[in-house]
Write a structure and sequence with these properties.
Blueprint lengths: L39 H20 L3 E6 L11 E4 L2 E11 L6 E7 L12 E5 L2 E3 L2 E3 L3 H4 L2 E5 L9 E3 L13 E8 L10 E4 L2 E11 L6 E8 L10 E5 L4 E5 L2 E5 L3 H6 L2 E5 L15 E5 L2 H5 L7 E7 L11 E4 L2 E9 L2 E3 L4 E10 L5 E2 L3 E2 L6 H7 L2 E7 L7 E7 L9 E3 L2 E3 L6 H18 L2 H19 L2 H49 L5 H29 L3 H4 L6
Parallel strand pairs: 1-9, 2-8, 10-18, 11-17, 14-18, 19-29, 20-27
Antiparallel strand pairs: 1-4, 2-3, 3-4, 5-8, 6-7, 10-13, 11-12, 12-13, 14-17, 15-16, 19-23, 20-21, 21-23, 22-23, 24-25, 26-27, 28-29
């Protein structure tokens, strides 16, 4: 028989024991744990998987859709999305839109860019481009096209975008400020046109749009920092495109900023510094006017305007709408309208010219404005204020309206016509010159030129007859003979009479010397004569005394001196 085995419920017995007397062994039952170590490994694996899944989902970047007109150069799974040449995402799919007019590009971006996807975010395809303002995107010739991103921090969150066909002129990473300009037309400006300050490029045109009313164009310009601080409330912008050529009395003036502005246009600006401008204000206007030229930008503008009418009788060819109005040589206004009117009563033509002046251009000492006095123009006209048309340039023939004082002109008063005050006028210098020339020509025409010519012809015929007459020829022969005799006489005088005349002159000189010696102060003759004159003087004095005595005592002639007493 085989021995019983352990673990089969039979207790072991010794060989000397009695089976009936030995106790029966009891089985010990132990309760096992409900969790086995075998299941720990898969649970840990599941936890790690869940953690990886949660981490992957939490770190997964946003998915955006971008609409482009074409998908040229783009490929799903290959085209990158970049910001500052750093990969921030990748194109996952490219589909055609439902209307077949565009393509829808789906891209997955990094999680860090989720907060920068707003309505101001911009996407565009960066590829090689050659424009008038420069060349860009040459690096994509080797690396291939990619989608560029310009993140936006302001605005509502957005996941669907419309891609730009051209790169934006500025990005959010550039420091600076945008300004809006308004102009009647765009001219030669375009996106990317430079903005200059003192001929240094400090910005560029970034956009333009037609106003809702269609009356003007709004142009957006961007000035990079720190040049944006140069713009104040007194800043003036003007169109610096092309070449500005002006001809005036001072000569020919050519103005341009650079060759680039000539090709693609440009804008320039400056801040005016004049006596009548207020201090710089921190409050900038919403829009700045864009002037056509530098001169127009530097010209002063005022809100208060007054209109007057002037009537001219002579020609005003060269006077156009916009021609200047000058007072004492200072520009104070512009011509608004020029017409031609016919007066049926006098059967004459006259030309009314409507002008607009800005009284604030005239300042009173102390910085005060010209008062709004309705009688001021009347007093000025009484003082001799008159209007006159003058040449602005003899080369171009342009005219302007000149206001000045002529006290010697005929007294006139301010009239009214069609609601406008009429300023009296005087003839232009050309008209006055024409009148003088006409008067001179009339006087010349009154001269009997035909009769004078006839008399001159007769006188010339008489002179010709006299010159060719035999009598004149004989007289000339006799004159020649007389001249020959005179020459002979002169020769004789020179040879015969001249020596005798020289001797006589010597004798006369000796005689004069003797006479001079006789009448000199120390000569005896002079002394005797002086003594004789003294005696004569003394005798004359005695005669005068006797005459005075006889005049007082006439009886002395009969009785003698002293007997009549």
């Amino acid at each position: 028989m085989s021995e019983p085995q352990m673990g089969q419920g039979v207790s072991p017995q010794g060989p000397a024991d009695n089976p009936s007397e030995q106790p029966v062994s009891q089985a010990i039952i132990r309760k096992r744990s409900s969790l086995s170590l075998v299941w720990l490994i898969p649970l840990v694996a599941v936890a790690i998987g869940v953690w990886l899944a949660v981490k992957t989902l939490s770190e997964k970047g946003p998915t955006v859709t971008i609409e482009f007109k074409t998908a040229s150069g783009l490929a799903a799974g290959q085209t990158k999305v970049k910001f500052k040449d750093v990969d921030v995402g990748q194109v996952t799919s490219i589909d055609v839109s439902g209307d077949l007019k565009s393509v829808i590009v789906t891209a997955e971006l990094k999680h860090a860019f989720a907060n920068f996807l707003t309505e101001n975010t911009k996407f565009w395809v960066e590829r090689p481009r050659v424009t008038a303002s420069g060349v860009s995107g040459l690096d994509t010739l080797l690396s291939g096209a990619y989608i560029a991103l310009d993140p936006g921090t302001e605005g509502r969150a957005k996941r669907s975008f419309e891609g730009l066909e051209e790169p934006p002129a500025i990005t959010t990473s550039e420091d600076g400020q945008q300004f809006v300009l308004r102009a009647p037309s765009l001219g030669s400006l375009n996106i990317g046109s430079p903005v200059y300050y003192r001929q240094i490029q400090v910005g560029q045109v970034v956009g333009y749009a037609l106003d809702k009313d269609g009356q003007a164009v709004s142009i957006e310009v961007f000035l990079s920092s720190p040049h944006d601080s140069l713009v104040t409330a007194n800043t003036r912008f003007w169109n610096a495109s092309g070449i500005d050529i002006s001809i005036s009395g001072a000569g020919v003036k050519v103005d341009t900023q650079s060759l680039l502005s000539v090709l693609i246009g440009g804008v320039s600006f400056d801040t005016l510094d004049t006596l009548d401008l207020d201090a710089k204000s921190d409050l900038l206007p919403e829009t700045f006017p864009l002037y056509a030229t530098r001169d127009a930008a530097y010209a002063k503008t005022y809100s208060r305007k007054q209109r007057y009418l002037l009537f001219f009788d002579g020609s005003v060819r060269g006077l156009n709408v916009g021609s200047p109005v000058l007072l004492k040589g200072i520009d104070i206004g512009r011509v608004l309208d020029v017409q031609l009117q016919f007066d049926r009563e006098s059967l004459r033509f006259r030309i009314p010219v409507l002008v607009e002046v800005e009284p604030d251009r005239i300042s009173i000492e102390g910085g005060q404005r010209v008062p709004e006095d309705d009688g001021l123009i009347d007093r000025l006209v009484e003082n001799g204020l008159r209007g006159q048309v003058k040449f602005e340039s003899l080369l171009t023939g342009d005219l302007y309206v000149d206001l000045d004082f002529y006290p010697e002109s005929e007294p006139q008063v301010v009239a009214s016509y069609s609601g406008y005050e009429v300023i009296p006028t005087i003839p232009t210098p050309l008209e006055a010159l024409t009148t003088k020339v006409t008067n001179v020509l009339d006087k010349i025409d009154a001269i009997p030129i035909d009769q004078i010519g006839k008399d001159l012809s007769e006188a010339a015929a008489g002179v010709n007859q006299l010159v060719n007459s035999e009598e004149l020829k004989g007289a000339i022969r006799e004159l020649e003979a007389s001249l020959a005799q005179v020459r002979q006489l002169a020769a004789k005088l020179n040879t015969d009479i001249a020596p005798e005349l020289a001797a006589a002159l010597k004798e006369s000189t000796a005689t004069l010397k003797s006479a001079n010696a006789m009448i000199s102060n120390n000569s005896p003759v002079y002394i005797e004569m002086q003594r004789m004159f003294q005696e004569v003087t003394s005798a004359a004095r005695s005669v005068r005394v006797i005459a005075d005595y006889l005049e007082r005592h006439p009886e002395a002639l009969l009785h003698g001196k002293g007997r009549g007493r």
